[in-house]
Design a protein that fits this description.
It is a single chain. This protein has helices at residues 9-26, 41-52, 80-87, 109-125, 162-168, 187-191, 206-214, 247-263, and strands at 2-6, 31-34, 62-65, 67-70, 99-100, 131-134, 156-159, 181-184, 195-200, 232-237. It is of the alpha/beta class. It has one domain (2-263): 3-Layer(aba) Sandwich (Rossmann fold). Strand 9, helix 7 (206-214) and strand 10 form a beta-alpha-beta unit. The protein binds 2-phosphoglycolic acid.
Length: 270
């Protein structure tokens, strides 16, 4: 794993935007995996700024979001489709037809199962995900793969954990229905992406970040599955890095990486 520790959350957004820009430079019609949540908002703001400065184009990009709530309509102000429209898609030149969010507002279990199968098929037909952006929950989830999720799971219905419901309570009014089910890419689906880019900022993520990087590979910490991926970049701020026991090593390793890149030797620290 590549572990990059940066001074602040805004440095994390800049660094992640550089990775996305690099991906689009290599392949203008990249397939991007996108995430919702408060963490990627600063990255999306930076991508919008670079698009407006004509440094980036999303004209040929295809996107797949990680997850969507079950039980609220796509037009609900808290649906992840609405989130993506309002935080990114409305401000860049992506073709909205090329943006995919799991279709989860369906009346029956069978319809949801079919939707999950269709989502997997659409990803495969698009050629697979080139770069998947991820956040991490305080309980170590990625997407809505809650603790105890199979590390081989595919897109499916998941029941949200109490910790996730609590963490997301702030987005819903007190008397409003809050979803407790979601349709989410599985951990196996996420691991099929060619490059994983996980962002974490703030001290409330420090324990999950430590478990992801330094804990055992475990279904109890879904993000620890990144240990199984050959091309995972974990970009975090100092606060989220606070509990890492090998923090100095990761920083030293990144310095070596830049030096090796300058000498053309490439890198050795995946
Ligand atoms: P957050 O959510 O970015 O809002 O902290 C991350 C997640 O739960 O995956």
């Amino acid at each position: 794993m590549r572990i990059v520790i940066l001074p602040s959350a805004s440095d994390v957004a800049q660094f992640a935007a550089d990775i996305v820009a690099n991906q689009l430079e290599i392949k203008a019609d990249s397939v991007l995996g996108l995430a919702t949540g408060s963490t990627p908002v600063a990255l999306y703001d930076e991508l919008i700024t670079r698009y407006q400065a004509e440094q980036l184009s999303f004209k040929e990009v295809v996107s797949f979001n990680l997850d969507e709530y079950i039980g609220i309509s796509v037009t609900h102000n808290q649906s992840y489709r609405t989130f993506m429209n309002q935080h990114l898609f409305e401000f860049i030149n992506i073709d909205i037809q090329n943006t995919h969010v799991p279709e989860a507002n369906l009346p029956t279990k069978q319809a949801l199962l079919n939707s999950a199968v269709r989502y997997e098929k659409s990803i495969a037909e698009a050629g697979g995900i080139d770069l998947q952006i991820l956040g991490i929950g305080i309980n170590g989830h990625i997407g809505f793969n809650e603790p105890s999720s199979s590390l081989a799971s595919r897109t499916r219905v998941k029941t949200l954990s109490q910790s996730t419901i609590e963490a997301n309570k702030r987005f819903f009014n007190e008397d409003e229905f809050q979803p407790y089910l979601a349709l989410t890419m599985g951990i196996g689906t996420i691991l099929d992406s060619r490059h994983l880019l996980l962002l974490a900022t703030g001290e409330n993520k420090a324990s999950a970040v430590r478990a992801m990087i330094e804990g055992p590979l475990s279904a109890m910490v879904p993000a620890s599955a990144l240990q199984q991926h050959v091309n995972a970049s974990i970009i975090i701020d100092q606060a989220a890095a606070a509990q890492l026991s090998l923090k100095k090593y990761y920083q030293w390793s990144e310095r070596q990486r830049s030096m090796l890149a300058q000498t053309g030797l490439g890198s050795t620290n995946e």
